[in-house]
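Morning F.,

Quick status update on the modeling queue. The single chain you submitted on Monday has been processed. Sequence for confirmation:
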Amino acid sequence: MSARDPLEPIPLTVLTGFLGAGKTTRLNAWLKDPAFADTLVIINEFGAVGLDHLLIEEAQGDMLLMAAGCLCCTIRGDLVATLEDLLRRRDNDRIRFFRRVVIETTGLADPLPILQAVLQHPYLGKRFRVAAVDAG
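C-alpha cells below.
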C-alpha cells in the first residue's frame, strides 16, 4: 500500500494518565520527533477553561481541542463524529494529510470507553488501529 492509501488503518495512540502525570510533557517530546510528523493531535480538556493546548510547544501536525467534557463519558459521540469528519476531510484533501492520531485525554478519563467507541464503530474500527495506550 502507498503512504497515502486511505484504506490502510491509521495508528491511534491514546495518551492518558492522572492530572500531573506528565501527559503534555510526553506529547511535547513526541511532537519534536520526526517520526511524529504528520500527526493529528486531539486534546481533551475538562473544565471551564482549556489550558493544555496552550502548553504544547511545537506541533508539526494539526491539533484539535475538545473541551466540552470528558471523552470517556459525556462526549464519546462527539469524538466519533469528529473522527468521522476528520477522515472525510483527509480523504478529500480538505485538510493536511495525517498518518497518525494521538488523543490526549483528561486526567479523569478512562481510556477503555474511548477505545471501544472508536474500535467498535463500524467505520472507525476499519480506519484505525491501536498503536499504543500510554499512561503519560
